[in-house]
Amino acid sequence: MSVLPDSWIFTASCPSKLGTVDVVTRFMAESGHYINEIHSFDDRVSHHFFIRVAFSPAAHFSTDIFRDNFTPRVTPFEMQWQLTPPQHRERVAILVSKFDHCLNDLLFRHRTGQLSIDVPLIISNHPDLCSLAEWHGIPWYHLPVNNGNRAEQEAQILALLEQYNIDLVVLARYMQVLSPRMCEKLDGKAINIHHSLLPGFKGARPYHQAWEKGVKMVGATAHYVNNDLDEGPIITQGIQSVDHALYPDDLISRGQDIERVTLFNAVRYHVEKRVFLSGKRTVVFS
Description:
Order of helices and strands: EHEEHEEHEHEHEHEHEEHEE
Oligomer: single chain
Shape: globular
Strand order of the largest sheet: 7-6-5-8-9-10-11
Distance between the termini: 9 Å
Number of helices: 8
């Protein structure tokens, strides 16, 4: 669903209580704010409520007036809420190694307006894709990493993220395991993409391993980064059936197509404020 150009985004979460939807929608109506899109979910397990509202504001809209009038109403609900203005653009840093399919896709969608983001820089541990960044006019930082300089290299990355005031980090096939300290710094602010094959194949050449086992399905998973390798809260997944007629190179090609679309959707949902963290799980209003 396309977001209207003048739409503000209201997002909130709170403990499950009677009247949570009513307190939000009644305030919107009484204030003259027209709701264009609304999603809500009450998690019966965690007893927590989540809501996202896209709305066209009344004339002479003021965030200060909204806050002053709305806060007293939701204080009894212990509601944590946020307003995002129209045309808001997250500042996204992309980390990449040698594979270019995800980076190329994100930059294309950024350039054509499919992703409402700014990309102030690209960071890589290899020099291979520098020309792609230069073609898009985006600063490129080559920061090689090995077992001896990992802490120093990650400190350089964190310094660049702070220098460029980055909101979100996207690991577009960045083939390095982040340290626990790095994961902690990027908690809830970094999205990773990796292949999803069943059964799971770890180590080198996973698609060749999958072909040898005769897999019938390939896929990809986009998730938030945490200390559990490739096991952070999942945002999006994609799958496609395959058969015996496909060879390892065919599986790789299919898998890369799924990876780029799955990552795009994850980034889009995040920047459109459609993703809520709920412990180790996510609530995604896609």
